[in-house]
TrEMBL record:
Annotated Pfam families: PEX11 (PF05648)
GO biological processes: peroxisome fission
Entry GO CC: peroxisomal membrane
Signal peptide stretch: none
Organism: Aythya fuligula
Protein name per the record: Peroxisomal membrane protein 11B
Membrane spanning stretches: 225-246
Gene name of the encoded protein: PEX11B
Cellular compartment(s): Peroxisome membrane
InterPro entries associated with the record: PEX11
PANTHER family: PEROXISOMAL BIOGENESIS FACTOR 11, PEROXISOMAL MEMBRANE PROTEIN 11B
Superkingdom of the source species: Eukaryota
Length: 250
């Protein structure tokens, strides 16, 4: 299994490039449709988008093995929350990719009896659940870092004393609540600014979330918005491949 995992990892960059091109086509198609482009031009854009999607499915063949290996590694993490979130995320990603492989076989003509709609809905359900778990992991990491920052030297020093004085000066409950929210927001922004990998992962997962929500009919978005979200998350993924230090580590 290890040689195939290494091959899948090498294919990841190409798959991300095709993904960016696919959602770029979706965004361009929506813009052309809004500007009254001819039916022939729109059909060509849709055809190119379909070819890019099929090419991505080909590059993702066997990706389930990589996801299962990642799940096996996540089981041994010492942090219980991270262990639960990452293991569950990788298992759902493995199921999503398995469904995706079935879809590829159907679209390539190898398994013409495959119910494309059923398997597509099934794959997007696994994809959605994996994203929700990923966002839960991001929220947990963010909360841990915020607590660590709040208990650190900076809030114990001058800034901490200033905040204490501000709290004492607040006379009403609403003022205290507003001040507390303001301090929490500043802390949140400071933590995200000092942790680019977490910020990129949070943005990427948030952008990706709208894709399965739209495909499953849970939250309808315009084709342009879905294309923009897919393109943005693809660019962020490419950045983490080009600069590995930007990838969020367990």
């Amino acid at each position: 299994m290890e040689p195939w995992v290494r091959f899948s990892a090498q294919s990841q960059a190409r798959e991300r490039l095709l993904r960016a091109a696919q959602y770029g086509c979706a965004l361009a198609g929506a813009a052309l449709r809004r500007n009254g482009a001819s039916a022939e031009v729109l059909a060509r854009v849709r055809q190119l988008e379909a070819h890019l999607s099929l090419g991505r499915k080909l590059l993702r063949l066997g990706g389930s093995a990589e996801a299962l290996e990642a799940a096996k590694r996540a089981i041994h993490l010492s942090d219980a929350v991270l262990r639960f979130c990452l293991t569950l995320s990788h298992l759902n990603r493995a199921l999503y990719l398995a469904c995706d492989n079935v879809l590829w076989a159907g679209k390539a003509g190898l398994a013409p009896a495959v119910d494309q709609e059923k398997w597509s809905q099934r794959s997007f359900r696994y994809y959605l659940f994996a994203l929700l778990v990923n966002l839960s992991r991001d929220a947990y990491e963010l909360r841990v870092l915020m607590e660590r920052e709040a208990n650190g030297k900076r809030l114990k020093g001058t800034e901490g004393r200033q905040q204490q004085q501000q709290r004492h000066r607040a006379e009403a409950g609403l003022q205290q609540l507003g001040l507390r929210l303001q301090l929490e927001l500043r802390l949140l922004l400071r933590v995200l600014r000092s942790n680019p990998p977490l910020l990129l992962d949070l943005l990427k997962n948030a952008c990706d979330l709208f894709i399965p929500l739209d495909k499953l009919g849970l939250y309808r978005s315009s084709p342009a918005f879905v294309g923009l979200c897919g393109l943005a998350s693809s660019v962020l993924s490419i950045l983490t491949i080009l600069h590995p230090w930007l990838k969020l580590k367990p």
